[in-house]
Amino acid sequence: MMSEMKALIAMVIVQIGYAGQDILFKLVIEDGVNVRVVVAYRLIFATIFMFLLAFIFERNKRPEFTWRLLILAFLVGLFGSAGPNILFAEALARTTATFISTATILVPLVTFVLAAILRTEHVHLGSKYGKAKVIGTLLGVGGLFFFVLYKGKEIHLWSSRIHLGGRTHSDTTPNISILAAFLALGGVISYSFWVLLQVKIGNGLGGPYWNTALMNMMGSLVALLVALIWKPDFEEWRLGWDIKLFARIFSGIMISGMAFAVIVWCVDANGPVFVSMFRPVRLVVVVIVASLILQEPIYSGSIIGTVILVGGLYLVLWAKKKEMKSMSNPVETNRTDRNVV
Prior knowledge:
This protein has 341 residues and is mostly helical. It is built from 14 helices and 2 strands, in the order ααααααβααααααβαα. It has helices at 2-30, 35-57, 67-92, 97-104, 107-117, 128-149, 169-172, 178-201, 208-230, 243-270, 272-276, 279-294, 300-328, 330-338; strands spanning 154-155, 298-299. It starts with a helix and ends with a helix. 43% of the residues are buried.
């Protein structure tokens, strides 16, 4: 019971940390920073920090460096580190922090769809749990489309707001562009591929610290290459004692580093369904803080779309949990098998 309570508190803190990262990134983007350089620095800081932790706490779990290990590290770095970070950052530059936080809720749903396509997970359409997962996935995708396409009335939460940027939200990203939606969806798909890849790899990259360090190392190399090819302006790489440096260090060490380690621990202790349940916490925090600090407007359409999306997520998670319980129960499994198409 105590372990589960610790995991609950840890996951809430992790999601609040992710929300803080979204707000910080939006602030530095509005200040005119190159997002690809920010991502490269983030992954470089994460690599240094996680290698230090790996050498200190997992010296006995150090993997043997072979070509196979480097290829695996490159794949997880591409899909789990560089890909989603670059795509989400590019999307954030074109839309709101609220939308990005909403889009990340799709990760468990997209992972389920990809697993079904790749046949790593069977969809029992004849069982009630299989149908619930399909319906929940459709609700999630429909909720995101509703968020993007329907605006509705603006809802005012505060009589006054705090503005920390050089420009107001209305000056930068008044609407959700189609490009931003596709970039965010690309980030979700990339991260979902990483989840499936991680299941296949298992402990192939050593312990969780080594895994994270190698992933961020390869991801930082990809991000560095992308940033230099896209816009080779070395002035963009200068560091100063400002919010830009804080955003890079915070997102690198606390999110790509510590938060990932906490998530791995929670997955081992309570399973992936438990971890996925806390994704909406990030969204709630971002909605409140972004409307107050970034002056991001809240519309009725956004709220309705988010409710539909979150409802779809919890329906899939409920079905997944019930399905796992029924598989561990021979009597229930036989009942389910009779209904499988």
